[in-house]
Amino acid sequence: MPPEHTPIEKQNESQLRSLARQLAQRTQELADAHKLAKLGSWYWDLQARSVRYSREAVALVGLPYTNAEFTYDQVRGLIHPDDYDRAIATYRGIIKTREPARIAYRAVWPDGSLRHLWTWAEVVTDDQDHVIGLRGTSQDVTERHEIEQALRESEDHYRHMVQLHPQIPWTAGPDGSIEEVGPKWLEITGLTRAQTLPHGWEQAVHDDDREALMAAWQHAVATGELADHEYRVRRHDGSYFWMRGRAAPRRDEAGRIMRWYGTLEDVTDRRLADEARRRSENFASQVLESTGDMVVVFDQFWRVIYANSKAASLMPAGIDQAALRLEDLFAERRAASIK
User: Fold this and answer.
1) Are residues 218 and 307 in the same domain?
2) How many angstroms separate the CA atoms of 171 and 202, rounded?
3) Does 229 lie in the same domain as 141?
4) pLDDT at residue 9, rounded to an integer
5) Angle at the Cα of 30 from the Cα atoms of 27 and 33, rounded to 5 degrees
6) Residue 262, in any domain of the structure
């Protein structure tokens, strides 16, 4: 008959079974966590010239878990050709320096699709402190890579759009402090980003326009009303040009202003054209006023749109000049003949 266990032996055996169950539970929890995180572990045996993969690591390269040990040639086939030399050089650097490192490369699946992996590796040494292998973890970050790539493309698209757009975009905080401004502002004014934000841009505004502009902007910030103002800005060469600044607030669900979005538009050509038109109109008016004749100008509906002072003196009293028509100035037969 087998000898009976002593109470102490039974107690130790019970504790060992309990520890074994806890270890199995923790091992399963770790495996589940690795699976959810798409994280696998591996060991590179430098003496056997092979790499052992965990079940999760094998799944990361798109293979069934039938053989977890791979030769160097097999591993080479798992890594994208454009990434292989760089990855191997990094592994060799880890062995040489004994410093852990992170490696990013693309894994080629059997169906030809690509997965982006991040790998963390460190050396393993024996009792004599000789490097005998590498160990590490690999994680599938394909989704993250695609999101980052889409974000970079979006940012690049926005940057090109901003650079090519004739207007200069800018944003400000709820208090009116400028937070961002398009690169064209820096190019035109010669100011740096640090010199421009949050209030340094004011130094580029013409002295004669600054007070009115700041009063209008502070009013918009205080009331939340749309901002629209024209003012002169100094170029990097010291000359001035006219800009139109417009802004509108973005509010949260409670109606609080979260941020201001605005644009700056070069309106110098329009201002010059308006000034030239005014000078031309003033000159024409002076010529028409200096003649001894009566001059009346009608629109296409034969309404009076201009009369020099001599013609105006003979018009019916008490009637707005803009309301006068051809028939009000001439007899019916004469008016008909003029038409």
Assistant:
1) no
2) 15
3) no
4) 57
5) 150
6) yes
Tell whether 20 is covered by a domain: yes
| Contact of 122 with 151, CB cutoff 8 Å | no
Helices assigned H by DSSP within 37-120: 55-60, 72-78, 81-97
What's the total number of domains in the chain? Answer: 4
Residue 308 carries which DSSP code? Answer: -
Residue 311: its H or E element: helix 309-312
> Are residues 137 and 73 located together in one domain of the fold?
yes
Is the peptide bond preceding residue 7 cis, with omega within 30 degrees of 0? Answer: no
- Give the pLDDT of residue 33: 46
Q: Say yes or no: 41 and 141 in one domain.
A: yes
Q: For position 253, what pLDDT does the model report?
A: 92
- 113 shares its domain with 195: no
How many other C-beta atoms can be found within 10 angstroms of the C-beta atom of residue 65?
12
List Cα–Cα distances, 189 to 163, 195, 197, 289, in angstroms.
Answer: 15, 11, 13, 45
| pLDDT at site 4 | 59
**In the predicted model, what is the mean pLDDT of residues 183-202?**
95
Are both 171 and 240 inside the same structural domain?
yes
Q: Residue 159 belongs to what H/E stretch?
A: helix 142-164
Across 12-24, b (16+ Cβ under 10 Å) vs e yields eeeeeeeeeeeee
Structure tokens belonging to residue 82: 């454009």
Q: In terms of Cα–Cα distance, which of 279, 285, 335 is closest to 308?
A: 285
pTM over 0.90: no
Measuring CA to CA, which residue among 50, 39, 106, 113 is closest to residue 79?
106
Q: Which domain holds residue 87?
A: 37-145
Amino acid 213 reads L
